[in-house]
Design brief:
single chain; alpha+beta; 15 strands; globular
């Protein structure tokens, strides 16, 4: 059995990514895990590297990265034949800007040892892959898969701004605060129409989260192995309530807001205005033509072999 590790370096403030990798490598060696190492050059290279490992006969692929890197790995794997997906096993050492899917299994960025011990124990579970079916800007039908969540509206806008400010400010907290300030000058509500559990709703929506897992705290009851997705919709609210919603979101208690509509379903169809912010597992996603066909989100049940906490 061949193991490949894709290392996605992350710079946080003035901390050196080399020092963190040294700790990870030492922990892997102490647990007797043999692997071949490849390093991603940028956010677009993970899918290429996963494809390279798969076609060179690697069975176990460790992603040393965050939600976005895992999302890229899943999208590469889901393009392969079923026989390949049955053979390949994914695992993660949290090392990203957002590590929400790892956190669902109790794996955190600060506990390298637990993540490595879990890989060594090799407790495998089949997990769901959420699937966004959409029309791209060239008029072609496309699929994009996710493990954690899709955000539409306010939170997707925050994530897009945060990605842009992170290019200037290395600090995670500074970029987040600046993103919130810049958000005051952005659009806050979008008129959306969605069909869920055979009922069609229309609302002015601040944010919508479709989660197969924690959804960055917005779908805390979702689990990525029941063939369903949780949907959290925050409707139009008074301007003064926006700040309370942001506060609850940062505290991981967004469902406590009185303007929240929670759902659980197998699929959802959504129409949104043009240029509505959309993010998939932390990736800002702008390839969707929202002016034509509605988006549809379904679940591919037990699609991915994933190593979970020991």
């Amino acid at each position: 059995m061949k193991t490949g590790l894709i290392y996605c370096p992350k710079r946080e403030g003035f901390k050196s990514p080399e020092k963190r990798w040294k700790k990870i490598a030492e922990c892997l060696e102490s647990h007797g895990i043999k692997y071949d190492l490849v390093q991603s050059e940028n956010a677009q290279s993970v899918e290429r590297l996963v494809s390279m490992l798969i076609h060179n006969g690697y069975d176990d692929i460790i992603i040393c990265g965050g939600d976005a890197a895992l999302c890229d790995a899943v999208n590469c794997l889901m393009r392969e034949e079923k026989e390949v997906r049955e053979r390949v096993v994914l695992s993660v050492i949290p090392n990203g800007l957002m590590n929400d899917f790892a956190a669902f299994w109790g794996l955190t960025e600060n506990d390298i040892k637990l993540a490595v011990e879990s890989i060594a124990t090799r407790r495998i579970k089949k997990v769901d892959a959420g699937c966004l079916i959409y029309t791209d800007k060239d008029g072609e039908k496309r699929n994009r898969y996710f493990l954690n969540c899709i955000n539409i509206g306010l939170v997707a806008g925050i994530q897009r701004l945060r990605t842009e400010t992170r290019k200037i400010f290395w600090s995670r907290k500074v970029s987040y605060v600046i993103s919130l300030v810049l958000l005051l000058f952005q659009r806050m509500f979008w008129k959306m129409e969605y069909t869920i559990n055979y009922e069609t709703e229309q609302h002015r929506v601040m944010t919508m989260c479709i989660g197969s897992a924690l959804g960055f705290g917005q779908t805390p009851n979702a689990v990525p192995y029941n063939g369903m997705i949780d949907v959290t919709v925050m409707r139009n609210s008074a301007f003064t309530q926006i700040f309370s919603a942001i506060t609850l979101f940062l505290r991981g208690k967004i469902l406590n807001h009185k303007m929240i509509l929670p759902y659980r379903c197998h699929d959802i169809t959504i129409k949104v205005p043009k240029n509505t912010p959309i993010s998939i597992d932390g990736h800002s996603f702008s390839d969707i033509d929202t002016s034509t066909d509605p988006m549809k989100i379904i679940v591919e049940q037990e699609a991915i072999n994933f190593i979970i906490e020991k």
